[in-house]
Design brief:
With 183 residues, this protein is α+β, with helices and mostly antiparallel strands. Helices cover 41% and strands 14% of the residues.
Length: 183
């Protein structure tokens, strides 16, 4: 019997959530959010990633994603998480303005030592809880859920007010840096 949450087919679109270990609020600085955005763009250009929607919250990221024909979504997710983990860690280490630097690095190191799959560091929780979106209704519901996340958190009154989301592109307010597959 397979895992309930797994990417079974690269032909489907999936809703995934990347969560920072211990729910650490890392994405409070633009520089870390930009690393994630740039990584998505890279994966689109070089690894076959399709992005339908995204929202970067303070301690997790929601994505509605798929893979272009000939690419494996599970490989893309693995590479995206691995790359962002390493580069955000490096940015934290080099950011002298980061008041929580030592604490965050200690927390990420502690999480890595507790997980036998890691050597000495863990940034993301292991699982992304992928959910296959097999109908248009499911797809639209998860895109709406993704865009409404900052509203539910009380960060903004309207989804399109959150600049670290594809909601602004869907509302035709601003073009996204990430090339979106709009539905």
């Amino acid at each position: 019997m397979g895992r309930r949450y797994a990417i079974h087919s690269s032909d489907d679109v999936y809703f995934v959530t990347f969560t920072v270990v211990n729910w650490i609020d890392i994405f409070t600085r633009d520089e870390y959010r930009e690393i994630f955005i740039d990584s998505m763009v890279y994966c689109q250009k070089n690894k076959g990633l399709e992005v339908f929607a995204y929202c970067i919250m303070t301690n997790h990221v929601h994505l509605v994603i798929g893979a272009k024909e000939g690419f494996e979504l599970s490989d893309i997710v693995r590479d995206l998480k691995s790359f962002t983990s390493r580069h955000i860690r490096k940015a934290i280490e080099q950011n002298e303005k980061e008041s929580r630097r030592e604490w965050m690095l200690w927390m990420f190191g502690r999480a890595g030592k507790k997980n036998h799959r890691n050597k000495d560091f863990q940034f993301w929780l292991q699982h992304s809880h992928p959910v296959a979106l097999t109908t248009q209704d499911m797809l639209h519901q998860r895109i709406n859920y993704t865009h409404q996340n900052p509203v539910r958190a009380g960060f903004v009154a309207e989804a399109h007010d959150w600049i670290w989301s594809s909601a602004r592109a869907y509302a035709e307010i601003e073009k996204s840096k990430v090339d979106l597959t709009m539905v």
